[in-house]
């Protein structure tokens, strides 16, 4: 289900995010497929044969996605990129969600909400946020991995100084792992992904960014620009 909206602030209670976009509800509890994604209103662009994305490099629209996995409660992401991989039969093999930049307060709350929904422990999360300073900002992170039945989850929270020196980013990966590794290799999609039945007329080409959008990659985040920032930081610290 898709819900269009335009607002200055939306998200979980207490978490604010400035922008406009679209909200999506994804029920991924029972053998989700690429059609599940389209039925929810999402229109991904093809990255590789078996990988597609909403947002990210080709589509600059911000969006909110509410997900529910097996044995979990629903939780919501303010997302700048939601990507999907599929097997040859178009069942989902992986979902990755990456938030927009969040304040430390909002990143902590969102990470806690996700852990609660997925029944993860939050050991060390408070200590992680209290330990962040100018020296640790570029390398610190908090992460947890969990496996259940034929699924594997990886949750990561870390500062995002490339985005903004005060912001954090939360990412979640969920991977379906039925059978053995050899079984999954046999199910790899080797030809370009196509829209599912009922959506064949919808293009999966890389979207054209709106006029005035920053180029990709953004020169401000280039390797040379980031190297210069690191050198400036070292000089400030007297290193």
What does this 3D model show about the protein?
There is one protein chain. This protein is α+β, with helices and mostly antiparallel strands and 239 residues long. The chain has five helices and ten strands. The protein has helices spanning 34-39, 104-118, 125-130, 181-186, 223-236, and strands at residues 2-7, 19-27, 45-48, 51-55, 62-68, 75-86, 92-99, 142-148, 151-159, 168-176. Strands 1, 2, 3, 4, 5, 6, 7, 8, 9 and 10 form a ten-stranded mixed sheet that branches. A hairpin with a 2-residue loop joins strand 3 (45-48) and strand 4. The radius of gyration is 19 Å and the shape is globular. The termini are far apart.
Keywords:
alpha+beta, single chain, 239 residues, disordered N terminus, 5 helices, ten-stranded mixed sheet
Low-confidence stretches: 1-20
Q: What characterizes the major β-sheet?
A: 10 strands, mixed
Order of helices and strands: EEHEEEEEHHEEEHH
The Cα radius of gyration reads 19 Å
What is the helix content? 10-25%
- Number of continuous helical runs: 5
Number of strands: 10
Q: Mean pLDDT, rounded to whole units?
A: 83
From the N-terminal CA to the C-terminal CA, the straight-line distance is 53 Å
In percent, how much strand structure appears in the residues? 25-35%
Please state the structural category: alpha+beta
**Could you say which overall geometry the principal axes of the C-alpha atoms support?**
globular
